[in-house]
């Protein structure tokens, strides 16, 4: 009946026409680049499990941060690998800890670059869980107290945004209270609010040396399912996000991104604060490995993936592709 009055292909006939009607715009302004910092000197070691990513030491990270800032990326997200681990992850709040020093180095070199820090214990505990273990269980409230100490120490070191990724109940409230009581009224909280127990964290866990200890095989501590969300749940994700906002989160995150685009979409419809999505290590490495095997065009797949996350409603995208995407965007201008 409508044919040929309506021909959808009219608006696809040239790149200029496609640009004119393009619904979603990617911007370097929305990207966050994760960085790994470990104890040592003069390090820039390639991470085996994550092509194109490196372990830096506090003395080399500022140069990398400067490169990130030069590309126009507004923020980095820091993960730390301490020199020693213990039962409670005490290096995580050490005044002279690896992340605390890295923040100082970055702020000295590139003060305008936002420094976001991951708040969790899994890289710092000898058993690899995101919290302390009491009587064979991850102890929620005891962990929250420690996380508040970690967040406070990062704020004291000059972090702009703290990002709790542990999934303990009530941790945003503990952190917000600790920040307020100590005068850090302007440190923002980006909570990993809807974080699922995902297989896609695999490459990160080898990079951050943060997997639960193999000694737990066959027990309820073998994985993170008692605190991270069941991948089948989306309504529960809304409840998690609502709680974190009420407890004082400024930005809420959905993680991972690709298998959870529906969760991002629902969150964007329902909440008014900025929504971040974490394009995690396994999603990154699926594209890197497929490209490496000659199966797809890396840049095109990367941009398509970022479009999908943005189209679903994410305001902020945390991605290991940030630098490559920024370069690609500059080229296509
Ligand atoms: C720490 C943390 C993890 C990631 C970010 N923070 C791993 C985990 O929960 O086991 C994953 C990031 C990625 O896969 O890129 N809790």
Give a quick summary of the entry.
This protein is an alpha/beta fold.
Explain what the structure shows.
This protein has a single domain, classed as TIM Barrel (Alpha-Beta Barrel). 37% of the residues lie in helices and 17% in strands. The protein is globular. The strands form two sheets. Strands 1-4-5-8-9-10-11-12 form an eight-stranded parallel beta barrel, surrounded by nine helices. Strands 6-7 form a two-stranded antiparallel sheet. The protein has 333 residues and is an alpha/beta fold. α2 crosses α3, α4 (140-156) runs parallel beside α5 and α7 crosses α8. The protein has eleven helices and twelve strands. It has helices at 15-20, 61-70, 98-109, 140-156, 171-181, 202-208, 235-247, 261-270, 281-292, 298-312, 322-331; strands at 31-38, 44-46, 54-56, 75-81, 114-119, 133-134, 137-138, 161-164, 188-195, 251-255, 275-279, 316-319. It binds ligand PBG. Ligand PBG is lined by residues 118, 120, 122, 130, 165, 201, 204-205, 210, 224, 280-281. Ligand PBG binds next to α6.
